[in-house]
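User: Last request for today: this protein with zinc ion, please.
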Amino acid sequence: MIPNTNAYWLANAHVPVPLLVGYPCAIAADLALVHLEIRDGVIAQILPGDQPPPSSAPIVDLNRGQVWCCFIDLHTHLDKGHIWERSPNPTGTFEDALRIVASDSHAHWRSEDVYRRMEFGLKCSYAHGTSAIRTHIDSSGEQARISLDVFKTLKAQWADRLTLQAVSLVPLDYFMTPAGEQLADQMAAVGGVLGGLPMMGEELDAQLDRVFTLATERHLDLDLHTDESDDPNAVTLRHVAMAVLRHGFTGQVVCGHCCSLAVQSPEESLKTIQAVKQARIGIVSLPLCNLYLQGRNPIDGQRLVESIAPRQTPRWRGVTLLHELKHYGVAVAIASDNCRDPFHAYGDHDGLEVYSQSVRIAQLDAPHGDWCRAITTTPADLMRLPTLGRIGVGLPADLIVFKARYFSELLSRPQSDRIVLRQGKAIDTTLPDYTELDDLITR
Ligand SMILES: [Zn+2]
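Assistant: Here's the final one, the structure of the complex with zinc ion:
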């Protein structure tokens, strides 16, 4: 369908208006009808769709099919991915996920195992239409060297297809040790981002001070896992915001999850949101994983500790205050998080699934508004990738072409027949076969 020529027109394309940059849209509509000229791998012209497209090049009539820019996946765990069949999580709880991943990594995470599972994730992501991925990397002790070496190799091998960023993942007290300082150096060496898991406690602010100092010294951005629980007393996000302000930190800070914000009183959550806004922190929500992990309790309301306990139906969705954060001017993104591991049994690194499910989970509709930016433009900005995650003249023709014309069509089917263009050329969107990993994932 897409000609293998250097120039052609994608005619009669429906482009979500919030994804367009530098193109005047007179009417406040969800979708703009446009013709896109693709030339030498970039978007050369965007013309209004109310006139026939010029016949200067072959024309592909999309009949109002939607055209998106490629997805930007801001928060993943490629190093944990696809271990479910050898290390399942029988209770589906966060606590058991932590324990089971630790045991799996101890037993299996040598170079080849990490490489092949990470590469499997990249193949899925690329075929679904993603162009940039940030992955957290479990980084305690010797695992940092093993996994970061693999990351460096894959980053180089995939450089022409995917922009990859790595973030360290350790408990925050790790940075109080010499190993923590060494880890900061390792993250700087891979052009990465400093990250970790803050927990409530007397040492929290001192730990944050240390992390901010290490990041400042090395000119690193920060990306932290905050408050992934239903405990209303978990307010590490507010402590992170205060640390940004205390340090006058000028790097970009991203905080992921922030689930507990949704179980606090409106007064308490607003205090945090205002601090987050002032500190210019970007928030990334992981709706699929949070829906999966949060609210798993037995009938008696205690923590689930055995898989045979009579199960309560979950009462909450687990996601943070996406609408309120956005309303108060905070940059809000959504991302895929874990795929087929003890933190989330499902998932395939598909940006459309993340968006589609997030629309349902968090009601990112009525109107759809600019929520399409949450999986494109906003994460691109938070990853400092200003030419990705948007559609405009002169930008790379890294696009996804759907048959679906309207949001009701886009969000009702998996769009498995989507066409992914990279630099104007249609790529092979065949997904990797699950059997590729069979020799690693024996049970
Ligand atoms: Zn995560």
